[in-house]
Write the structure tokens for this entry.
Amino acid sequence: MSAQFCPYCNFPIDPSISSLCPVCGNDTGSVIACSQTMPPSSSTSLISKSVIRSVAYPKHPVEVQIAFTIDRTGSSSQFTVGIKKTCKTILDYLVTKAQLVTCWVQSHGDLDYNEKNVLHTDAGTPDQAMKAIESITFSGGGDLPETHLDGIENLLTYPLKNDPHSSRVAFVCLLNDETKPARSGITPKKLGAEIKNRGILLYLVCEKYPALEELVNEAEGILYPITNSPDPGELQKIARQIGASIDMSITRGSTVPLNVANTP
């Protein structure tokens, strides 16, 4: 996978959305424009004077194990493009920061309509994960709400191993609409506590509903609220913030997500 990076802090950016880096706040547009219009020797000189530190940073000597669960019901069809871009932005960022990124990709439907959890990628590479995500079809489901809690709970059955010294585990859940109670009987609060006790970083990208807020609050995770028709730029910003949060959690040795939601 490829991405364009901020020349100041090496954060993945999308110039089509904004020239401002969402992490360091620098305007990357002038540096990029000058490097494209000036002679190679001049642009190199300009960049070397403008950039405070080298773009090349050593990767964290850790493994990031990231598990996605994606609501594939028909109600999520309006997120089709946004969900795929969100996942790609997160993975593009993480591969620049961690020595190893291992991925699980699951999609979930509505169990009340016999739409079971599907594991598309099992301990795969980011490229394999993105191919799986690109292949997901959004359809089915019934009357709202959906069985989101069951999908999130099922992520705990995969063999992800969290070690504060050598790895970080993150769950990224992209959902639409409210959740039904879990069939196992586990409450949102108990599921959140279990996720926290395992040292898993929990990120929900969804509309705000009481059960989902209770889950994320108990897990000390982060919920990124979206509308039912999110702007692509909004989803890209959220994706960059998730990547930065995982990176900060590694750097600071935190076992709960660190909030960078106030970045531009």
Q: What stands out?
A: Strands lie at 4-5, 12-13, 60-71, 98-108, 118-124, 167-174, 201-206, 222-225. The chain has two domains: 4-50, 60-251. The chain is about 35% helix and 20% strand.
